[in-house]
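Quick one:
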Amino acid sequence: MPELWTLTKLIRSKNAGPFELTLDIMFKDRGSFQQAVKSGSFTRENIARQCHVPNDSVKLFFLENISAIKISIPRRVPSGDARDTDIYGGQFHSPLVRMEV
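Output:
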């Protein structure tokens, strides 16, 4: 099974307000997008396990017309909190990069 990064042109995370993160996965082409979707790797349960958040807090959006997947998850601590390790949320996508699809 290929790793997610081999099918994409961009994987990123960023703040979606102070309490949520959004992860954007943009695929090289429609075939790569369809392969990832059909792999069964993009379930709420799997994403929750990869990102260490509750299953019911994961929101998945499959954007077929632009060959992208958008994921929203809660931040463990609010952006800017003294315990926050990444105020802009730019490093939280790393668990997905090597996910098998």
